[in-house]
Specification:
Distance between the termini: 68 Å
Order of helices and strands: EHHHEHHHHHHHHEEHH
Strand order of the largest sheet: 1-2
Number of helices: 13
Shape: globular
Largest sheet: 2 strands, parallel
Oligomer: single chain
Length: 313
């Protein structure tokens, strides 16, 4: 029988997974695997989440099988189409700025201006996480951006399969644009090659539906325990829109007062229900997910006129 969240007290699994994928990404950089299987690291994390969900069941898990076709389509679109199209549209504009105003392809003349590689690595991670925190937070407070983002909050449970369920524009704003901007700043390419995939480890794994505890790691990285409260159907008291907006690191929420992870008798509590704060039902139709926020989905189909009426007219 799989272990439940209540019976599982091992806090080493989550940090072990993070460490394993971080090491795998570092040592596998530049290998043919990147060319043979694009985005293999994301698929590997999703597969690991699916395995852990079978081994450590979550007591409040809700079946997501009916949403699987939608999940697969959204995952494929956001992994292989959204980034490509966003780069196609934005890179000419982003490249124009340094070339027009500085007479070069990058904003800085040399990566050495940022210091040694280890310092650049820290700077990149801090920049990525800081920008994504505020973009994510703004996606909850801006009416139009919330229309795009709210579909991600209609999922009834966090699962490995619905990690990338998001409107493409919403996904691009939070997960693509910041990396395009980094590319023209002028950091050492090696640093970006390592830091960018590493920044996605916790952001992806945060959707793991396994009943795992993370202990003190909750206060540094965005773990499933932390992220479930962000997806709570009921906004915690004292928080206007939501809580735990961090994508990679939870310390930004601690710094800006949006962190929420209640404890009782030494145990970390989890929300009763996950879902849309306005109780909107989950949407299995990917076309609706894509078009409704933009006002492009037809509300009613034209009724077919009976043949008899056509003949009589």
């Amino acid at each position: 029988m799989p272990k439940t969240a209540e019976s599982d007290r091992s806090v080493w699994i989550v940090p072990a997974v993070f460490a394993a994928f971080a090491a795998l990404r570092i040592f596998a950089r530049g290998t043919p695997l990147d060319h043979w299987v694009p985005k293999w690291d994301t698929w590997a994390i999703i597969l690991a989440m699916l395995v852990l969900q079978q081994l450590f069941s979550y007591s409040r898990a809700v079946s997501q099988r009916s949403m699987l076709p939608r999940d697969v389509i959204s995952t494929l679109v956001n992994l292989y189409v959204t980034g490509f199209l966003t780069g196609l549209l934005l890179l000419p504009l982003l490249n124009y700025v340094p070339e027009h105003y500085f007479g070069r392809k990058l904003l800085v003349a040399s990566p050495e201006q940022f210091g040694p590689l280890w310092l650049q690595f820290i700077l990149v991670l801090v920049m990525i996480s800081f920008v994504r925190y505020w973009v994510h937070r703004f996606q909850h407070s801006n009416e139009f951006l919330w229309k795009l983002h709210s579909y991600h909050h209609q999922v009834q449970d966090l699962q490995g399969t619905n990690t990338l369920v998001s409107h493409p524009i919403d996904f691009a704003l939070r997960n693509v644009v910041v990396y395009l901007v980094l590319g023209i700043i002028g950091f050492d390419p090696f640093v970006i090659l390592v830091a960018v995939p590493l920044s996605n480890v916790s952001g992806t794994f945060s959707h793991c539906g396994a009943g795992l505890r993370a202990g003190l790691l909750n206060y540094f990285l965005v773990t499933p325990e932390v992220h479930r409260w962000h997806h709570s159907a009921q906004t915690p008291e004292g928080h206007k829109y939501s809580c735990n907006y961090g994508v990679e690191f939870s310390f930004w929420d601690i710094v800006f007062g949006t962190f929420y992870l209640p404890q009782k008798d030494g145990e970390t509590l989890q929300p009763e229900h996950i879902g849309h704060p306005s109780s909107n039902a989950d949407e299995p139709n990917y076309l609706k997910l894509l078009l409704v926020p933009l006002g492009l989905y037809p509300r009613k189909r034209l009724a077919r006129v009976p043949d008899a009426e056509l003949k009589s007219s």
